[in-house]
Specification:
Structural class: alpha/beta
CATH class: Alpha Beta
Distance between the termini: 31 Å
Mean pLDDT: 92
Number of domains: 1
Order of helices and strands: EEEHEEHEHHHEHEHEEH
Length: 252
């Protein structure tokens, strides 16, 4: 049986807008498993990004419990959350958020140096990552000097430098064109094949193809789950049809 990395029990999240309470997540019980590529889908406003943030220390739930890698993160403070982010998890967002005054190499190694790891070891790992991501020749350039797709690859490098147990992605290809988006998805797929656990929010079927488990959220509740075989080039068409049928049943 697969190891549970993240578990929610009665997870609820509400916001106050003006004088009105808006219930975004409603009593969710979810398990996320080790080495899965878990995809969270749903229509706009369904609560998918709020769910991702609640699972990953980015936001505290209003009520209920979230256990992440054995830690109850339901009511942790920012200092405790920062320790988990630096040591155990990482993020890739639609807004790439590289530091503009640092080179690509410096952006990738920044988090590792903050964690006070061995400098020589970091340099070796960073150069290996840069080569794998096709960025080695551009490592001394600044973000503004490279394309959006290359910037997102650098963001992935930054996300994996500390060998996280889970990578969280919020529409990581949303700001990229189709070709650049495919390259980023190829990298994420390759990481998952190497047993990296990934949890990704997307509205895009092409991105969802890369997952082996899809959770569909509707009006703050999990409205369905689709389990697929681990990704392979041979079954793309079949996977796409399964996902389309699944989403059609959910009135996508």
């Amino acid at each position: 049986m697969s190891e549970v990395l993240i578990k929610t029990e009665g997870l609820c999240k509400s916001f106050i807008i003006g004088k009105t309470g808006v219930h975004v997540l409603k009593n969710l019980d979810i398990e996320i498993y080790k080495e899965d590529f878990t995809v969270i889908m749903g229509s706009s406003g369904s609560g998918k990004s709020t769910l991702l943030y609640s699972l990953s220390t980015m936001d505290n739930p209003t009520s209920g419990k979230v256990t992440l890698l054995g830690h109850d993160i339901s009511k942790i403070n920012e200092e405790e959350a920062s320790k988990i982010r630096n040591k155990d998890i990482s993020f890739i967002f639609q807004g790439i958020n590289l530091l503009p005054d640092l080179t690509i190499y410096e952006n990738i190694t920044y988090a590792a140096f903050i964690d006070k790891k061995n400098k020589e070891k970091i340099q070796i790992i960073a150069n290996e990552i840069l080569k794998e991501l096709g960025l080695y020749d551009d490592k001394e350039k600044y973000p503004a000097e490279i394309s959006g797709g290359m910037q997102q690859r650098a963001a992935i490098g930054r996300a994996i430098i500390n060998n996280p147990k889970v990578i969280f992605g919020d529409e990581p290809t949303g700001a990229l064109n189709s070709s650049m988006g495919e390259k980023v998805l190829d990298i994420l797929t390759d990481l998952n094949k190497k047993r990296q656990s990934i949890v990704m929010v997307t509205h895009d079927i092409k991105s969802a193809l890369r997952g082996n488990r899809i959770l569909y959220i509707n009006d703050g509740k999990i409205d369905g789950e689709l389990n697929l075989e681990k990704y392979s080039d041979e079954d793309v068409k079949m996977r796409k049809e399964k996902i389309k049928r699944f989403l059609e049943e959910k009135s996508w």
